Amino acid sequence: MSTDRLLLRGWRESDREPFAALNADPEVTEFLLGPMTRAESDAMVDRIEASFAAKGYGLWAVEVVGGPEFVGYVGLWDPTFEAPFTPAVEIGWRLARSAWGHGYATEGAQAALRYAFGTVGLAEVVSFTAAVNVRSRAVMERLGMTRDPDEDFDHPRVAVDSPLHRHVLYRLASTAAPSTARASHQASSSS
Ligand SMILES: CC(C)(COP(=O)(O)OP(=O)(O)OC[C@H]1O[C@@H](n2cnc3c(N)ncnc32)[C@H](O)[C@@H]1OP(=O)(O)O)[C@@H](O)C(=O)NCCC(=O)NCCS
């Protein structure tokens, strides 16, 4: 899947090393559960590949056309914990620090939304993050996703005394998706 500047593609063996590097970066993992070891990072790639094999969607590796071959992931994921909003399909992103500030997460996510609504045929996509993760929330807002504060929740896998415990939930219905996502949905469903 491609956008003006990005290729969202399947994972290659050569992605594992730069993925481990970004997962070991404390700035990238500030609002996640902390830096990962190489083994933890590789295990995550294995889970991502299993998602694509089982469901046909997952977290795509992101390549910058004419630039770095791997800068992180953007894509769709089924949360594996229980919350009032699950089961649901989540849209998520994680980029190397050097790839922030270019609009890549939003551009890649717009393509992932088109896939979610047009190809998978989902009626809704959610996204969530620690309330304090302002950059990730800004991506959700740029995508046109909306948050109801009544749906804020405590993440069951984050320690209750952690500043990351409280999470915000954003939703986007296929019918409310910005025209770029909707246009593709209509094109796909009529083809
Ligand atoms: C969350 C994350 C992906 C956001 O990355 P980001 O680069 O801030 O977001 P975008 O890709 O949408 O880029 C937007 C920025 O690029 C800028 N930009 C520059 N050129 C641009 C262009 N051509 N088009 C659009 N935006 C552009 C925008 O102005 C904006 O900058 P600002 O933050 O100073 O306002 C990144 O911070 C990250 O990987 N964090 C660590 C992992 C994480 O927390 N993931 C989320 C877990 S829920």
Mind explaining what this structure looks like?
The chain is α+β, with helices and mostly antiparallel strands and 191 residues long. It has one domain: Gcn5-related N-acetyltransferase (GNAT) (Aminopeptidase, 3-Layer(aba) Sandwich). It has helices at residues 16-23, 38-55, 104-120, 134-142, 179-190, and strands at residues 6-9, 59-64, 72-77, 90-95, 124-130, 146-147, 153-154, 166-173. The chain has a four-stranded antiparallel sheet, with helices on both faces. Strands 5, 6, 7 and 8 form a four-stranded antiparallel sheet that branches. Helix 1 (16-23) crosses helix 2. The longest helix has 18 residues, at 38-55. It binds coenzyme A (COA). Coenzyme A binds at residues 28, 31-32, 92-95, 100-106, 129, 133, 135-136, 139, 142. Coenzyme A (COA) binds at residues 28, 31-32, 92-95, 100-106, 129, 133, 135-136, 139, 142.
Describe the structure concisely for a colleague:
The chain contains five helices and eight strands; from the N terminus they run E-H-H-E-E-E-H-E-H-E-E-E-H. The chain has 191 residues and is of the alpha+beta class.
Helix content: 25-40%
Structural category: alpha+beta
What is the CA-based Rg, rounded? 16 Å
Q: What is the CATH C level class, in words?
A: Alpha Beta
The overall average pLDDT, rounded, is 94
Under CATH, the homologous superfamily reads: Gcn5-related N-acetyltransferase (GNAT)
